[in-house]
Amino acid sequence: MEAAVPLGGRISGPRLAVMLGSWRQGSRQGAADLAAAIELQVLDGQLPLGTRLPAERELADALGASRTLIGAALDRLRENGFVASRRGAGSWVAAPGRRRRGPLAPAGGGSIDFTHASSPAIAGTAAAVDTARVRLADHLGDHGYQERGLLGLRERIARRYTERGLPTTPAQVMVTNGAHHAFVLVLRMLAGPGDRVLVEQPTYPNALEAIRAAHAIPVPVALDPSGERGWDIAGVDAALRQASPRFAYLVVDFQNPTGLRLDTGGRERLGAVLSRARTPVVVDETLVELDLEGDPLAGPPPLAAFAGDLAICVGSASKTHWGGLRLGWIRASEDLLGRLVSARYAVDLGSPVFEQLVLTELLDDESALTRRREELRGYRDALAGAVREHLPDWTFALPEGGLSLWCRMPEPVSSRLAVAAASHGVQVAPGSRFGVHGGLERWIRLPFSLPPETMEQAVRRLRTAEASVRGTPESLAAPIA
């Protein structure tokens, strides 16, 4: 029986080539390497089920490979269930289903997910759910649609901004279904097809995907990931004048993935540059509360304190409390927030009431977040110690907050390492995921949100995978006692 053709989108050969990065490991294993690289994109969610793949000739041209190699790689993907084909209809991404053992299945032990920089639910979540269940009775008599969010939750979010140095009222806050949802709402309102959006390089991959999905064009300004310089404010100024972006997307608190944080003086200069250009800026503050070295209230004021009404802050409970709540918020001027509320009706009609009640309870328990920061500080130090011990030629700047290390490798093998690591039971996000046009092959992000013993095992597996990529015996890759 022939496979049914799904109604999915199509990815072009050049776009797939950028996603795959430097997938080659050697001419003898070219087809296996390409198949493994595509499998990694499927398992990582970057190639959704039903996505139509480029024709063999188009993909061969984009990758600079022979059609024979492309055909062999597709044959392997079909054998493993990742690709289905039908004569005259082409090939598309399929559900692999259950497999006893495949190229990405670990030889021993379970697979470790080292791609998500997020933690389990914060302590006290179950108790907050119980309290919220009782309070829910007060809301069951109305229609339940809250396009701006519950007043009690918006009051707490506004108070936190005021405490950080940005006076805010509940009327300047709208609750959303996570920070990414907040960003997409702003993106839909501010930019359209062909418009430019200034971003950092590297930056959050899902923001890049949202920009591309809106048919807008991301314009990168490079960061210094060594932490010695950080934001190139002169470069931002030049990009604003030359590219005339509709808005900028910046993460100035424990930037994802670098962990960098812009100081107060830098925020003042950056805010002045944005104000002079009259360019709105979306400031992603998802990680601002994860200050692992001090009190978040003692840190630099929000960038919006220097950029004025041009600044649109987005935040989230996903990194601090739990991703399962799927709640975030937008802080903006009342005028702009009114426009966002009107634009929101085309997407959704508000966030769930019960989850908002739960988050309201959680935000009242500051001690739980303090304990989370203490736990993550220990996790960060454990991961840093494991990398120093098992991968001594990798370097990184220890971040003062956030959820990940941004590691520099001695050779540009990040994408190849991600493919090899999968076969050793570790899923990692290569540096190319964080670049506007790929690249960043000397870099890889390692989250410290897993228990120390799990991270230790993951780093050991990465050492073995790196040795296979570099053609180095593992015994030589291990540190000398």
How would you describe this protein?
By secondary structure, this protein is α/β, with parallel strands linked by helices. The chain has three domains: 13-93, Arc Repressor Mutant, subunit A (Orthogonal Bundle); 112-121 and 368-477, Aspartate Aminotransferase, domain 1; 127-364, 3-Layer(aba) Sandwich (Aspartate Aminotransferase, domain 2). The protein contains 17 helices and 13 strands. It has a seven-stranded mixed beta sheet, sandwiched between helices. Strands 3-12-13-11 form a four-stranded mixed beta sheet. Strands 1-2 form a two-stranded antiparallel sheet. Helix 1 packs across helix 3 (56-63) and helix 7 (179-190) packs parallel to helix 8 (205-213). The longest helix has 25 residues, at 366-390. It is globular and about 65 Å long.
SSE arrangement:
Blueprint: H1 13-20, H2 30-43, H3 56-63, H4 67-79, E1 83-86, E2 90-93, E3 112-114, H5 125-135, H6 151-163, E4 173-176, H7 179-190, E5 196-201, H8 205-213, E6 217-222, H9 233-243, E7 247-250, H10 264-277, E8 281-284, H11 304-307, E9 311-316, E10 328-331, H12 334-344, H13 353-363, H14 366-390, E11 404-408, H15 414-423, E12 426-430, E13 443-447, H16 452-470, H17 474-477
Parallel strand pairs: 3-12, 5-6, 5-7, 7-8, 8-9
Antiparallel strand pairs: 1-2, 4-10, 9-10, 11-13, 12-13
